[in-house]
Amino acid sequence: MFKFYNLIVLSLVLLLSACSEEPRQNKISAEKEQLVPAVSVKGQALTFAHLKSDHSLLLVHSYSNGKTTAVNLSDLGAPKLPDMLDAITQYGLENIKEIAASTSLESKNYEIGEFSAAASSLGRHISSGTNFIEHAEETNSDRVFHYPKFSSASPPVSNVKHVKGVLLDYEVEICMRADRPIANLDDFTKANKFFFLCGDFSDRSMLSRYIDPDNYDSGSAFTRAKSGEDYFSSGPFLVLPEDWRGFVSNERIMTKLNGTIRQDSRGRYMIRDFKDITKHVLADTTSTRFIYQGKGVTMLDGERIKQGQTLMSGTPEGVIFMPPTTWQITKGIIGYVFTLGFLGEHTGREAVIESFIKQELKAGRFLKHGDQVHYLSASMGEIHVTVE
To answer: Which H or E run includes 223?
Structure first.
């Protein structure tokens, strides 16, 4: 009897191993025109950068092919502070606007690798899930949700570590930070709102294990899966537009993986804009449903969004992750039944998830050592990340 059973098991294992699906990839709707990373033209926005070497504050005039032309505001009296937004605030926007209007000041050239992150040094940020229409469709999500993300910002030229067993995924996003704490929508309206390009990395294996498929907003998975060292990449430029809504709506962002376009969209396809994100976040300050390092945490540290804390837009379609197919689920179920998995500690759902993760790791679709992730934007520069 057992010999016959073992024969059936061996036959099924060999059959399943021999059967493989075609390589999977989420479809995207890329624009025909090539995206060349740049900064906003004069008169539409003020664009700032920050030197890693000595914290000098720069007023950026142009950006092309990794090279920046800028006026060093610190040579004109701007303070050299670790956070460039603090330096902007202390020096004064009125002073900066007068300098921006001048045509006689000397500009200097800088390389993108000289710049620090446009994000602050805070390690706690606010992420948005399925906030772009087409990404919501590709992940089978029926609503937008928000959660805390714990990760210090990496500079625009940086690395992200690949760990064995992790399904590492990319996301390009528009990020926003304000020049004051925000406790209500009146604060948001009065604040100067600065925008920068950012990249969000995540562990899809952890997400798959802990997600509640019937309630993405349960808090059980996303903070855990998207918090980690090097999981938050920041662009080099902090942009203060004249019209923030118009800027975000028209801003085009893109991800290239090893030179191939994988994401391409504009801010107008956000379901919730940054004001609406703020509204929902401020209404969710007491729940401890979000899990980080094994403990329940709240969305915010307190009841307001701190100055320097980042609001993240969410990402467009084209991420690597795709929900398990019927075939992948079937393979997991068959393996669970015919290897007597039901006699062990795993539930059937857990066994299917582990089988799915194993299949995805074998397929090699997710980020791996040596991959080059390139985030680009029309007016906020670019980010280069190497998977190491």
So the answer is: helix 222-226
Tell me the per-residue pLDDT of 87-141, one tens digit each, with 9 for 90 and over: 999 999 999 999 999 878 889 999 999 999 999 999 999 999 999 988 988 888 8
> What are the CA-CA distances from residue 123 to residues 137, 148, 181, 384 (Å)?
30, 10, 16, 21
Q: What are the backbone angles phi and psi of residue 286, rounded to the nearest 5°?
A: -110, -20
pLDDT reported for residue 109 = 97
User: Cβ(207)–Cβ(169) under 8 Å?
Assistant: no
Listing DSSP states for 92-103 in one string gives: -HHHHHHHHH-S
Report whether 299 contacts 126 (CB < 8 A). Answer: yes
Q: Which residues have a Cβ under 8 Å from the Cβ of 209 and sit 6 or more positions away?
A: 221, 350, 353, 357
Residue at token pair 């791996």 = 368
Token pair 């016959």 is found at 4
**Amino acid identity, position 94:** E
What are the boundaries of each domain within the chain?
A: 45-114, 124-323+365-387
β-bridge partners, 132: 270
Q: Does position 21 have pLDDT exceeding 70, yes or no? A: no
Bridge partners (DSSP) listed for residue 148: 126
> Token pair for residue 237?
């430029």
Whole-angstrom distance, CA of residue 359 vs CA of residue 230 = 26
CATH superfamily to which 124-323+365-387 belongs: Fumarylacetoacetase-like, C-terminal domain (3.90.850.10)
358's CB contacts (< 8 A; 6+ apart) are none
Q: What is the 3-state secondary structure (H, E, C) of 177-224?
A: EECCCECCHHHHHHCCEEEEEEEECEEHHHHHHHCCCCCHHHCCCHHH
β-strand partners of 146: 128
Which pTM value belongs to this model?
A: 0.91
pLDDT at 10 over 60: no
Q: Residues 6 or more apart from 23 whose CB is under 8 A from it?
A: 363, 365
Nearest to 254 by CA among 46, 1, 36: 36
| pLDDT higher than 90, residue 369 | yes
* Res 42 pLDDT > 60: yes
d(CA 387, CA 206): 19
CB atoms within 10 A of CB 52: 12
